[in-house]
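Dear Dr. V.,

Thank you for agreeing to look over these. As mentioned in my earlier message, I'm a first-year student in the group and I'm still getting used to reading structure tokens, so any feedback on how I've presented them would be very welcome. I ran two proteins. I've put each sequence directly above its structure. The first is here:
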Amino acid sequence: MKKNKIISSTNNTLIKTIQKLINNSSYQNKLSLFVCETYKIYQTLILNKFELVYLLISDESKITNKIKDKNFILIKKNIYKKLSFLENGDGLIAVFKMKNKPIELSNQKKYLILNNLQDVGNVGTILRTSAWFGIDAVFFANNSVNIYSPKLIRSSMGYNLTIPTQKINNLTNLVDELKRKKIPIIGTVLENKSKKLSELKKMRSFALMLGNEGNGISNVDSSFCDLLVKIPSINTKVDSLNVSVSCGIILYHLTN
């Protein structure tokens, strides 16, 4: 039986490359590669037809018998600990190729626009929720979190990569294209002029825009919206909902 290659030095070129991929989003984009951890997330990405480039497993891991692809590389435990961003990982680190196919808009589909969302935990929850409710694509606009951040992949359990995603450098261009396709843009704003969510009916197609955790959608960006909605509070002592919670409530209402 062929023995797996084993890496025992932190000076190894591949180890240095993976470290840089974990910490540098520009380097990720340059190589079109990203890093993830754990067998569960690895399996999710394999099932969604992501191209595996490298598979590294700690020499003390107990998951090697689960791996169908036996061309993995063994790494010493100390190297795994240096690469891993988990306290209690299962010993697996994988490098996959990015999918960079542009998203083609359709007035038969549902979209999400994340506008300057920077909390990885919130965005991870939003993406898992979007997958659950059948959102067709998610756009990351105005300095939103890195789509391929290892922490975001972990937070969403890899589901952030099962939905087509695209970074948008110019929100106005996306808005113009949505309007050309007659896809209504819905913004979430806690103002008197906003409609109550209960007044909206199920929609075949829409683009839901969610704003920054602290500041919401700016006045300029809210002017792009065809419709502004709010979720009325029952307890007036609470001034806002977490953005990921709001997302789940709105998507349930619009898709059911």
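The second protein is here, in the same arrangement:
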Amino acid sequence: MGNAELSVVMLTDEAREHALTVICDEPMTRQYLLRLQHSSICSDRLPEALVQMLTVGHEMMVFGLHDGQYQVVLADVQYERNTRIRMSDAVLLSMISDIPLYMEASLFRQQSVLFNENDQGVSIPINTMDVPRLNMAMQHAINEENYELASKLRDEIKRRTVKG
């Protein structure tokens, strides 16, 4: 789902009962689509090459949310090393490898919505949007005369800019 500037990827739990939305920028959307449509030509791309260099025993964990960004760590459980990565990179890495992507259960319960494969739209939690996207969404809400949503977006923008 998406437009020219961003897209939304939906991740579900194994039972496909709940879904989580991840906002992706246009370059990452192109990476996803390339692999979904033409996976055979991706074997020599950098992400696939890096995956080939990884040893066994990796996993990714989504452990928090800060200023509209999920906090994700890629961990090498064999050597107990880890590094933070973007959520959209974690999704791509999960697509092209056998590296599992986990999320803390309480965070998943807080952020997920009921999943229905036939739904036409998708809910994006305000706390997963960065400030520029919040501003765009607020302007769209004003244009649509949805002043209640615009007010919530304005309050979230103020909360983040005051503490930052």
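From my reading of the second output: The mean pLDDT is 87. The CA atoms of residues 79 and 108 lie 27 Å apart. Does that match how you would interpret it?

Kind regards,
E.
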